[in-house]
Structures are given as C-alpha cells and as structure tokens.
C-alpha cells in the first residue's frame, strides 16, 4: 500500500476488507490476518468511496474521475465494467437489498441510479432514468447525502459539501450525519422535509469525516478529520430514554540533510525532524468554532446519544499533558474533549466545555482540578473539577489563536499560560477571580513549556526554540532574563523544563538529548540523557524521570549524576493484558470455522505501533509511571518492569476511512497517519489490532462475508 487511504469497506461475511487509495488503486485484505488478496489500479484519480453488494457478488468502486467500476468478488476482483453518467467525483454509494441496483451521489449533489444486468459478463451498469422503476427499490444501506429520503438533513444556505457522511438505521428509523461544523446529528428516517428537527452532539474539534452504525445498531462510530479522533456514541431509543437516566456516572456516556539526521525534509541546521514538523504546525484558521452559531449552547442541550468512549490521546504535537488525579484516575485530552479514564473499571468521563482543539493540560497541586487551553480567535482556558466534570473558571481575553502551555503555582492559586500569537504572550492569572495579574511578550519563536517556581510564586521559566528564560513578576508585567550558557554549551532548543530542590535550581531537556542544569540564570552543567530530544521531564522528591524520542524512560538521582534505571518501551515488554491480537484471533475463531489463524502483518506481540516510540509525556503517581507517546498511546509502567498499554489511537493527519463489521462488534479506521486499526465496540472498548502502512489511506469497506 503505497498511497494515502481515502475509504474502507467490509464485505457482508466480514472476511474481506477493501481499501481505496488516493492514487486510484484499491487493495483487498483478509480481515483475519491482513494478508493481501489483490491490489488493482485501474484509475489515476483518488478512490473516494467503495462498497460491497449485499449478496457478496460485486464491489463498487467510486473514483474522483466521476466513474464507478464494478468488480466480481468471486473472480478475484475481475473488472466487469463501469457505471458512467456523473459529471463530478463520486462521493457516496448504496446497493439495493437484492444487489440489482446501485445509487450514487457526486460532488455536484447529483443522484443517479444504475441497474446491474442478470449476466455475469457485462460492460457496466445501465443508468436508470425511469423514476417508477426505482420507487419500489429497497436499499440495503443508506449512506447517500442526496435524495428525497434525506432532504431534511440540509440546513438553510448550506453547501453541498457541508455534510460529509450519513448512515441510516432502518430498525430505529433514525439517521445519523457527520458535517464540516464538527457536529454529529440524529434525525428521524426518512427525513423528507426541509428544516427537519434533529439532535446534535459535540466532541469533535474539527470536521467530522465519517459516521457509521455498529452491526447491532446500538452504537454510532464517528471519526474526525483534523482531530484524528474515533468517537463511540451510545444510541438510546426514545422508549428507553427514561431508563438511560439511571446509567451509572462512569458510563456517561548537524545539517539536517546529513546521514545523522532522521529526516531530509529541512535545511534548518540542528533541529530534529519531529521538532521541525511541530514548529511548522499552525493553528490559525479562517473560521473558528466560535464563529459558528450552530454550535452555541450545545453543551447544555438535552442529549439522546451519549459519548461512550474516546480511543486516543494527543501526543504528536503536545507534551506533558498526562496526569494521575487524586483518586488514581488518568486525565488527558484529545480533540476538544478532556478525558478522565478509570483504568480499573475501563470507563471514561468527559469534560465537554471546550469548542475547539485542546492544546495543553496541567493538573492542580492537589490533583483535583485541571486546566486546559484551546485553539481559538479569542482562546479560552478552562479550569474544571475532575470529580464533578464542571467548570470552575473560564479565562480569556489576553491570548490570540490558541494557548499552548499552562501551569499552576505550587499553592494552586495562580495559573501561568502561553499563547501561540506572534509574541507568544505570557499571562499570569488569579484563576479563581478570573483576573489577569501580569502579562509580557514571551518570544518570537515557539515556546513549548511554562513552569512556575514551586518556592516563589512570582517566578517562572519558559522554554522553547533556542529559548530558556527566567521571569519574575513586576507589577502588571514580567521581567525576563535569558539563560546564560557561557562556555559550557550553546543556545539549544529546550523541549521541557522543571524546577529542582531549591528555588534557584532548574533543569531543562534539549533537542539534542542533553539535560541542562541551571542555577539562577546560569548553566552549570550538561548531562547526556537520551539519544535524540528530551521531550518530557518530571521532578520527584528525590530525583527525576525523563522521556525522549528514543522511547526510553529514565530514572535519575536528584543531581543527574547517576541514571538509576531505564525502561525501554517495547512490544516485548508489554504485560499480557496489553496483547490484544490474541483476543482478535479468538473473536474470529468463535465466528469463523478456521483451524488456525496465521501470524499476520498486524502487531502480534502487542498493540504498540512500533518499538521505542517517541515519548511526549511522563507523570508519576500511585506506584506507577504514566507515559504518553507521539503515536497516541498511553502506557503505565510498573517500577518492577511490566508495561501496560491503556489507550491508543490515530496520530497526525486526517481520519476519513471507517467501516463497521457486518456481524461482529468491531470496526476499522484508516488515516493519513499511515495506520489501519481494528477496534472492539463491546464493553472492553479496546483496539484489537493495528497495521502500519507505507502511506496513509482514505477509505475502507469490509466485505459482506
């Protein structure tokens, strides 16, 4: 698989998984072991949609060149012909229940029908223009966005591309939609009249690219494009809505082109590729969520679908955003959602007060409150209670475009924040009163971290690109002094920073793998800690913990003179409870009569995407080390050695491909992050398998068998 995937489909028996690619090709894999069945390239433009016929005979493949190709499944996907007539790219496909008719939507909003000939040898589907012939056709699925049956889903003044995906539930007589405004909506089906009533639900911080019902219609799966998120929503029929009120709370639902470089993407010297890619990220947008009136009051609206599970963690462009709460739960963020995860009960609770991407998170010294900062034209910082999941304070008015770093003072009364405006403005707040205490320009280059002095609340440090600065409050402003390196080193890029055992001691991790030891503003020593950038550092009562791009967690003494112990994050070190592929195989053994499931290209030693993933967050508590990776994984390291994988999900890029299995509680997602992932929709809510691809994918579908 050499190109980004745009779509996915599963056949009716759940045996084949088809993936449509951006270069005009498609690949079919066996679901049980992910070996390749066939790879075909008949088109030059992207495959936008594909779908198996209900009887398993055909695979329809819709292309951006406005054609639909029909392939015979039993004939090893021999091309039988094509359906022509559309004047724009194909966006959606649906088969009739008897597999004789196919309906299509295109980029112009045009709906066309085709009849499949009775003979196995044909040149293509014949377009049906007689409306009477179509009247009695029952469609096996409804995923088209255009048609009489879905007229009511379109808001006034909407554009034909505003709604990305729909899926009908014939049993519940409802229809779910995904749109460019970041909302998931629930309509009655059929939805004939313009301006139909609906329920809408938030959580995604970007356009929702796809939405599908589970095989038993109890769940809705939605995926976000730019937020890389997979949401699982619980569907509660109206007749059961009263019972739903009794659901337990936790169920609520050198030269960088040299051989030493790991990238040839840049000619900026002495900058690691991960750091370079992150500095190039921009969160500035033409339209922010706050501009969309449709999103107002959503959090307060009575809901009929409840968010059940968030399957990922944001680590690819964030750091030090993962903590234990007072009672041992785990708090992190993804998309516009703050997540509280109970690892014992495998349940999640959600803070939904934000309306756009959360970029940073920190926890109060008492471990009961959390502060989160988001993207926005006038971005807000929310301080909220981890127990009640209610906001305590919302701070805004002094940052632009977004907030990239936050930190509480040791007494918990103040909060420091850094914006992503051109000056990377630093603000010191009295958060309980909602008042600004001090403000200053930080740096023209990106700042990654702000840390308040635990001994003197008027002091703090910031670290970033060629930046280490020591600040103290002076009235309504802040006075900053650059760190002085002298002859001990050079002005390096700092990725993380913490204070030490006195108010004058500070420690920072560099992009070259060193730990810098500072006294006041002076660099006094450097220690080689990791191969590659030191992305995260956590201070203990007696010592430190660091994590780097090399995928190693290191325990240090209180002066960084000795490394006491290291933990390499590898698949082989995962505890048995993390090895999900065995569960994946057993699931298929129950349903499919097969004597032996072969070793597959999927990760069979555990669900880590790769050994030694880049570590972006480290926190300690309750006898464990909590680790967050760039690959969207959260792991818990026991100090005796075993590692448990708790959370995983998609990374950077957009997530478009989504397919649910026809009779098993699983679904498949594909993304620009070049991974194919299989998810369990049952109460365990875990990822069953992951395959790393050479290039990203756009769509997928599972075969009917």
Automatic annotation (TrEMBL):
The UniProt record lists the keyword Repeat: yes
Region called Disordered, residue ranges: 251-275
Organism: Camelus dromedarius (Dromedary)
Pfam families referenced in this protein's UniProt entry, alphabetically: Beta-prop_EML (PF23409), Beta-prop_EML_2 (PF23414), HELP (PF03451), WD40 (PF00400)
InterPro entries: Beta-prop_EML-like_2nd (IPR055442), Beta-prop_EML_1st (IPR055439), HELP (IPR005108), WD40/YVTN_repeat-like_dom_sf (IPR015943), WD40_repeat_CS (IPR019775), WD40_repeat_dom_sf (IPR036322), WD40_rpt (IPR001680), WD_repeat_EMAP (IPR050630)
Name of the protein: Echinoderm microtubule-associated protein-like 5
GO molecular function, one term: microtubule binding
Residues covered by the EML-like first beta-propeller domain: 347-636
Acidic residues compositional bias, start-end: 257-275
Location of the EML-like second beta-propeller domain: 1-234
Record-level GO cellular component terms: cilium; microtubule
WD repeat boundaries on the chain: 527-557
Keyword Repeat recorded: yes
Keywords, in A-Z order: Repeat, WD repeat
